[in-house]
Design a protein that fits this description.
Blueprint (H helix, E strand, L loop, with lengths): L2 H6 L2 H24 L6 H22 L1
Length: about 60
């Protein structure tokens, strides 16, 4: 997810994306436990995207 795409989002869109990313992260953890996940970098990327979206929401609420 690119920064310019994140800046264009509304708060409700960001919240929906956070929920989707959390579900993806949950599934990635199961895939790691089962040895099915090919690229472990997906976990770190997902965590970073969640943090970016939370920062966006916090910035819009405080502004």
């Amino acid at each position: 997810m690119k920064q310019k795409d994140i800046k264009k989002m509304t708060t409700s869109q960001a919240t929906k994306d956070i929920d989707k990313l959390k579900k993806d992260l949950f599934n990635f953890r199961f895939q790691v436990a089962n040895g099915q996940l090919k690229s472990s970098s997906k976990i770190n990327d997902t965590k970073k995207n969640i943090a970016r979206l939370k920062t966006l929401i916090r910035g819009k609420v405080n502004a």
